[in-house]
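#onboarding

Welcome to the new folks! Below is a worked example of what a typical request in this channel looks like: someone posts a single protein sequence, and someone else replies with the predicted structure as tokens. Don't worry about understanding the tokens yet, we'll cover that in week two.

Example request:
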Amino acid sequence: MSTFATIDDLPADSRVLVRLDLNSPIEDGKPQDNRRFERHAETVRELADAGHRVVCMAHQGRPGRDDFTSLSGHAAILAEHVGRDVRFVADTYGDEALSAIDALEPGEVLLLENTRMCDDELPEESPEAKAETAFVTTLAPRFDAYVNDAYSAAHRRHASLVGFPLALPAYAGRVMETEYEANTAIATREFDGPVTMVVGGTKATDVIGVMDALADKVDRFLLGGVAGELFLRAAGHPVGHDVAGTDLFDEQWERNRELIESVLAERGDAIRLASDLAYEDDGDRAEVAVDDIDEKTEAYLDVGSETVADYEPPIRASDAVFVKGALGVFEDERFADGTVGVLEAIAETDCFSVVGGGDTSRAIELYGLDEDDFSHVSIAGGAYIRALTGESLPAVETLRAAANRSQPPERR
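Example response:
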């Protein structure tokens, strides 16, 4: 890929600083293993096997939140996936960290403490400002190269993401490379047949923006989740508003009503809406036809079986299918039919397919689908949305700029 340099271009015997995204759910104070560790381990393993000295950095949570914690537990999980020891140092760029970095032998791996424990990390500033922080100016001279593998954080202007590429020769890791290529395919690739997008999830504001931005690149949209219900409301059905126990609809409707109505008016022929919805009735799954709903009294938790049957033929006739968001609350097996049914249809179709967003991709694992049946399963959320809508990703832009530079600074 010519967009930026990759680790294929990395000089031999380098000391490399590698930015990963290991941000994970925290339960009982411990990080939970997930797809991000598995994916990033490929880059770390490849670098270590090649004899590089590998120093990793990552973030966890944000200051003030319950999941803001040390990365000590992350090192053990990463080590399991990499297949070799990953040392941890409870420091980011102080003397303890610098000593551990200097002591590394070829093929050894070290994980530094949570980058967000550094005051220099979080404020969103220009790459030039970030490159001048103590965090970057202290660490960069210890390294030959910087590798960014954190595509899922590429929409941020944080020091560990945009500062180091100005101070060091910079390369894309395998996750960065594959995520960028797959997630920009909708804008850059030519497809012979229809392009379909499955749109769902709870963040309607994001996906409605995607629908608007991709109107001329997608032949049909199949809707579910909160966005699907809001479009049903715009089409005149008495749904898409909050009932007791929910707060997902009214605020998003007010914010997006005009855009929803304009997208529906302009592209209504390309938009498929649910014909039935599922809800909980005495602990069981029940379904109701949208045309039979006179008043919304229940929270709808999935699209119905008729909708799944309606959505499968256009998926199977597609040359490319992109997924953003689940069609229901798939974590509850009673309300997984929509999401899993659509994913199964995609898996059985010989098409280019990208499943985006951490939540939706989790359904693949949860319900025993084979990840290899999809062209790409993204671990990115915000960056995936940015890529789909054509917005620039600051961390990608700094990698591109770095590809035009050559001479590395002298290492101490």
